Amino acid sequence: MWSTTKTSSKPLSYELLAEVGEGCYGKVYKARExxxxxxxxxxxxxxxxxxxxxxxIPAFMIRxxxxxxxxxxxxxxxxxxxxxxxxxxxxxGLELSLVLEYIDQDLSTYLSKVPASGLSRDKVMDVMxxxxxxxxxxxxxxxxxxxLKPENILVxxxxxxxxxxxxxxxxxxxxxxxxxxxxxxxYRAPEVLLNSVYMSSVDMWSVGCIFAELxxxxxxxxxxxEVQQLQKIFEVIGLPSEKDWPAxxxxxxxxxxxxxxxxxKLLPNxxxxxxxxLSQCLAFRPSGRISAFKALSHPFFVxxxxxxxxxxxxxxxxxxxxxxxxESTV
Length: 330
What we know:
Blueprint: E1 2-3, E2 14-22, E3 26-33, E4 40-48, H1 50-54, H2 59-72, E5 82-90, E6 93-101, E7 105-106, H3 107-112, H4 121-140, E8 143-144, E9 153-155, E10 161-163, E11 170-171, H5 190-193, H6 201-216, H7 226-237, H8 272-281, H9 292-295, H10 299-302, H11 311-318
Antiparallel strand pairs: 1-5, 2-3, 3-4, 4-6, 5-6, 7-9, 8-11, 9-10
Helix pairs in contact: 4-6, 6-8
């Protein structure tokens, strides 16, 4: 058995209450801690058996635990907390468990409950502010999430927004080579769809897609194949110039990909500041995409006094660690 519980702490004891989700690799349960605290927990359980066990503990599991442990001491309010992790032999297999703080719902579920009139502008700002703070924290610590989507963003009943599910996350290295399956199709950046190298700006493309979805209450780009997804993107942002087409992509540039037009006003019902932030998130060239850090100072937030960054956060950014990503790659 192995465990990542800190040596000063005992392994968490809990009772499973209900299954709340299921994926390709296992199940997620709502649980309650046994003892005085009685707090609710989310428990991910993975059963590794047969041939899969011969390859050892899956890389995605090790990656998620390692990255959450790396960020644990910072205790960031907009990143889900890992409380315990263990691997226990069960019969001829291995049961892997991740114990996380319990959050009531994900952003997809939250949006499904929003009335047809939509979210208020203030609520959109609140969600975006928290999402960007969490992402800026990750990028400052050289972590690329690589799978941001509403299902991986949690929203508590108190309105807290937390980034979750780090199974595809990676420590940043400059100009990362493509990994198949990075980012769910509807939130996938053009450079990933074009099999080009990518940087942390892939996460900001996903943020742009989520930003639009907060207004539309539906995904902005809903392609069924990678080619169709590119076409959906170019229908909205316009076809980029040939000089902006990635040099390392195996996919050739063609004027037939989509219409050429300005993309400064992507959604007709948005205010100028909203469209400007959206267009900077959805810039075709990764180097032209706004960073999470810069987005937090965008007029979309700054002009509304109740959303201005507090002094504590400003001080944190002034004293940010020297390991921050270069500006052009954040």
